[in-house]
Design a protein that fits this description.
mainly beta; seven-stranded mixed beta sheet; five-stranded parallel beta sheet; 1 helix; 18 strands; 35% strand
Protein backbone atom coordinates (compact mmCIF):
# COMPACT_ATOMS: atom_id res chain seq x y z
CA UNK A 1 0.00 0.00 0.00
CA UNK A 2 1.25 3.46 -0.73
CA UNK A 3 1.30 6.16 1.90
CA UNK A 4 0.88 9.70 0.73
CA UNK A 5 3.22 12.45 1.82
CA UNK A 6 2.11 15.52 3.72
CA UNK A 7 1.66 18.68 1.67
CA UNK A 8 4.66 20.99 1.34
CA UNK A 9 5.28 23.62 3.98
CA UNK A 10 6.34 26.91 2.41
CA UNK A 11 7.16 29.76 4.77
CA UNK A 12 7.89 33.36 3.67
CA UNK A 13 9.40 32.36 0.31
CA UNK A 14 9.30 33.67 -3.25
CA UNK A 15 8.55 30.99 -5.83
CA UNK A 16 8.54 31.88 -9.51
CA UNK A 17 7.96 29.48 -12.45
CA UNK A 18 8.78 26.46 -10.28
CA UNK A 19 7.30 23.15 -9.18
CA UNK A 20 7.46 21.97 -5.57
CA UNK A 21 6.68 18.31 -4.81
CA UNK A 22 4.92 16.96 -1.72
CA UNK A 23 6.61 16.75 1.66
CA UNK A 24 8.98 19.65 1.06
CA UNK A 25 9.85 22.26 3.66
CA UNK A 26 10.93 25.60 2.21
CA UNK A 27 11.73 28.48 4.56
CA UNK A 28 12.47 32.10 3.66
CA UNK A 29 14.14 31.42 0.34
CA UNK A 30 13.79 32.12 -3.36
CA UNK A 31 13.04 29.58 -6.12
CA UNK A 32 13.05 30.51 -9.78
CA UNK A 33 12.66 28.27 -12.86
CA UNK A 34 13.32 25.16 -10.80
CA UNK A 35 11.89 21.78 -9.88
CA UNK A 36 11.99 20.72 -6.23
CA UNK A 37 11.45 17.00 -5.58
CA UNK A 38 9.86 14.98 -2.79
CA UNK A 39 10.86 15.66 0.82
CA UNK A 40 13.23 18.51 -0.08
CA UNK A 41 14.38 20.86 2.68
CA UNK A 42 15.64 24.30 1.72
CA UNK A 43 16.64 26.55 4.60
CA UNK A 44 16.42 30.32 5.02
CA UNK A 45 18.30 32.75 2.84
CA UNK A 46 18.94 30.23 0.05
CA UNK A 47 18.45 31.00 -3.65
CA UNK A 48 17.75 28.26 -6.21
CA UNK A 49 17.58 29.18 -9.90
CA UNK A 50 17.35 27.11 -13.08
CA UNK A 51 17.95 23.91 -11.11
CA UNK A 52 16.53 20.49 -10.34
CA UNK A 53 16.53 19.33 -6.73
CA UNK A 54 15.68 15.61 -6.68
CA UNK A 55 14.69 15.57 -3.01
CA UNK A 56 15.16 12.75 -0.51
CA UNK A 57 14.23 9.09 -0.11
CA UNK A 58 13.28 9.65 3.53
CA UNK A 59 12.75 12.31 6.18
CA UNK A 60 15.50 12.56 8.76
CA UNK A 61 14.02 12.10 12.24
CA UNK A 62 14.43 14.71 14.99
CA UNK A 63 16.93 12.35 16.64
CA UNK A 64 18.95 12.00 13.41
CA UNK A 65 18.98 15.79 12.99
CA UNK A 66 20.25 16.22 16.59
CA UNK A 67 22.94 13.57 16.01
CA UNK A 68 23.94 15.36 12.80
CA UNK A 69 24.52 18.54 14.82
CA UNK A 70 26.56 16.70 17.48
CA UNK A 71 28.76 14.94 14.93
CA UNK A 72 29.01 18.03 12.67
CA UNK A 73 27.27 16.17 9.82
CA UNK A 74 25.22 18.16 7.33
CA UNK A 75 21.51 17.35 7.21
CA UNK A 76 19.87 16.16 4.00
CA UNK A 77 18.77 19.16 1.95
CA UNK A 78 20.06 22.65 1.30
CA UNK A 79 21.47 24.65 4.21
CA UNK A 80 21.14 28.34 5.01
CA UNK A 81 22.26 31.15 2.69
CA UNK A 82 23.17 28.91 -0.26
CA UNK A 83 23.16 29.94 -3.92
CA UNK A 84 22.40 27.19 -6.41
CA UNK A 85 22.22 28.02 -10.12
CA UNK A 86 22.14 25.75 -13.19
CA UNK A 87 22.58 22.60 -11.10
CA UNK A 88 21.10 19.17 -10.54
CA UNK A 89 21.16 17.80 -7.00
CA UNK A 90 20.53 14.06 -6.86
CA UNK A 91 18.61 12.43 -4.01
CA UNK A 92 19.73 12.71 -0.39
CA UNK A 93 22.36 15.38 -1.17
CA UNK A 94 23.63 17.19 1.91
CA UNK A 95 24.46 20.83 1.17
CA UNK A 96 25.96 22.78 4.08
CA UNK A 97 25.39 26.44 4.94
CA UNK A 98 26.79 29.25 2.74
CA UNK A 99 27.50 26.91 -0.19
CA UNK A 100 27.63 28.31 -3.73
CA UNK A 101 26.95 25.87 -6.55
CA UNK A 102 27.25 28.25 -9.48
CA UNK A 103 30.09 26.87 -11.62
CA UNK A 104 32.15 29.86 -10.47
CA UNK A 105 35.05 29.14 -12.83
CA UNK A 106 32.85 28.54 -15.87
CA UNK A 107 34.15 24.99 -16.32
CA UNK A 108 32.58 22.96 -19.16
CA UNK A 109 33.50 19.44 -17.98
CA UNK A 110 35.03 18.26 -14.70
CA UNK A 111 34.74 15.28 -12.37
CA UNK A 112 35.20 15.25 -8.59
CA UNK A 113 34.41 13.00 -5.62
CA UNK A 114 30.97 14.51 -4.85
CA UNK A 115 30.03 16.18 -8.13
CA UNK A 116 30.67 16.51 -11.82
CA UNK A 117 30.21 19.27 -14.37
CA UNK A 118 28.86 18.46 -17.83
CA UNK A 119 28.30 21.17 -20.42
CA UNK A 120 28.61 23.77 -17.65
CA UNK A 121 25.88 22.19 -15.47
CA UNK A 122 26.92 21.10 -11.96
CA UNK A 123 25.55 17.69 -10.93
CA UNK A 124 25.78 16.72 -7.27
CA UNK A 125 25.88 12.93 -6.81
CA UNK A 126 23.31 10.94 -4.85
CA UNK A 127 24.12 10.91 -1.10
CA UNK A 128 26.97 13.44 -1.60
CA UNK A 129 27.88 15.87 1.17
CA UNK A 130 29.10 19.36 0.29
CA UNK A 131 30.64 21.06 3.37
CA UNK A 132 29.58 24.51 4.55
CA UNK A 133 31.34 27.41 2.83
CA UNK A 134 32.19 25.45 -0.34
CA UNK A 135 32.10 27.18 -3.74
CA UNK A 136 31.75 25.06 -6.86
Amino acid sequence: RSRSLPPSKIIDSKIENSIVADGSIISSCSLKNSIVGLRSRIHSGSIVENSIIMGADYFETEEQLKNNLKSNKTAIGIGKNCIIKKAILDKNARIGDNVKIVNAKGVENHEDKDYLIRDGIVIIYKNAAIPSGTTI
